Amino acid sequence: AVTAAPAEPTATVTNIAHRGASAYAPENTLDAVRLGAEMQADLVEIDVQRTKDEKLVVIHDTTLSRTTDVEQKFPARAPWRVSDFTLEEIRTLDAGSWKDPRYTGAVVPTFSEVLDELERTASGLLLEAKAPELYPGIAERIAGELQQRPQWMQPDPMAQHLVVQSFNWDFIRHFHGLLPSVQVGVLGAPTTDQLAEVATYSNQVNPHHSAATPEYVAAVHEHGMRINPYTVNDPALMRTLIANRVDGIISDRPDVLREEIRNA
Ligand code: G3P
Ligand code: CA
């Protein structure tokens, strides 16, 4: 059997803006994506789901309630699932004012619009397929949209310009089969006994920060994978994780993280 070479220690830590720069702008909107890029995040993380009419949209929850005014606009449509609304209906919703009145009028973006936005910046993309088990065929749909855009399909697997991740590890295994040149990551923390199997299809393990002990980070590296814990907003915790030799950190505050990386 071939054993994967340990990953090289990372020269610098990847700065990943969680749901965009979501501490400051409404999560998963174009404003948050743009701000993450302006704060020089290496990657902007977004959550991708699918509408009733099979359009890919960028939103975290599987319902529209928390981050839009859907309950006011469509009171009879409980439980307000993303999958029960057309894109045209979703585009009537305000996805910004829940965060701050100055973002009133922000909309739930399509995946394509986020790609358009990122293509105007130096930042790459950490795409989370959120609850893909609710959306049969979404892996093929995401792969198809990416393949139409050559700049996201660079052949260099170490480019780290595009990473696809999910809590659904079967989805990641399947996506890896569809587009083997694209880096992928499992969300969560496989046991050390599971790491060898995960490493047969995944390039990254992205756990809650509480799992990223020095020993666990070393075990992930021994299996040739990178580790980018989430969601880290406290500077002291950022410093601890950098000392633990993580490869990247997912944060709502990419500006704060940038300073900690610079000073490490
Ligand atoms: O990128 C990691 C993180 O986004 C996973 O958790 O709930 O924020 O999607 P969640
Ligand atoms: Ca996410």
Automatic annotation (TrEMBL):
Designated name of the protein: Glycerophosphodiester phosphodiesterase
SUPFAM superfamilies with a match to the protein in the record: PLC-like phosphodiesterases
InterPro entries: GP_PDE_dom (IPR030395), PLC-like_Pdiesterase_TIM-brl (IPR017946)
Pfam families membership: GDPD
GO molecular function per UniProt: phosphoric diester hydrolase activity
Organism: Saccharopolyspora karakumensis
Keywords, ordered alphabetically: Signal
GP-PDE domain: residues covered: 13-261
Domain of life: Bacteria
Biological process according to GO: lipid metabolic process
Record keyword Cell division present: no
